[in-house]
């Protein structure tokens, strides 16, 4: 049986020890487009070590900065075809501002497995602590496996974010670079889908596409700059679903609705007028 929820749910995925330095943070920020105006004081918070502040989405790359092989999708109670898998959603909650350098341990588990009928959704949760075992952040992600449903599990919640019936409170456009994916892949994800034209065509795309987690970071920064004065330390959590691909060089249009300390977010490709992130929620202080 490809998926056995009785074995999978709660399964321990082990521990990973890792470290990072200011140069890793700087590279990540450049990889998501920071520094477009190199004399802007807000941009320098992301790109200059003097007052460097870490955008919480850095948590998505920190444990794998020096891991260059694609991750395995073989877990206890789960044996599925990697070709059928796409990244469904990503969330990061920081328990305090991420330091610009540090050593940490990540402890992962399978939090849940949902049976959507024609597909399965596998939810992973990772708790990250520092050397003193003090919590740094919690990351939660889901992968969507086409054709792997029907195993008799719970359907799970929809987690749909209902937007207010009004125009967005703020909208911002963010250009991406034609070489954005080539730069971002230096943060650890060397999947050829983001660099090799022939590989991308074989996968059904006209050209290499941008990493979903790069889009996730670009939009997190756009909302932080637009609504929080460009201060990453004010971000407490950021979650979103991946709704479509981005072609490097496209412009992203991010729309934001304010609900107290919650910012509801969607992002579209301007050139193709299609959604790329949906159900986004950024919580701030």
TrEMBL record:
Domain Peroxisomal multifunctional enzyme type 2-like N-terminal: 18-147
The organism's place on the tree of life at top rank: Bacteria
Xref: CDD domains: HDE_HSD
InterPro entries in alphabetical order: HotDog_dom_sf (IPR029069), MaoC-like_dom (IPR002539), MFE-2_N (IPR054357)
MaoC-like domain ranges (all copies): 162-274
PANTHER family for this protein: ENOYL-COA HYDRATASE CHSH3, PEROXISOMAL MULTIFUNCTIONAL ENZYME TYPE 2-RELATED
Record-stated family: Belongs to the enoyl-CoA hydratase/isomerase family.
The protein's name in its UniProt record: MaoC/PaaZ C-terminal domain-containing protein
Organism: Haloechinothrix salitolerans
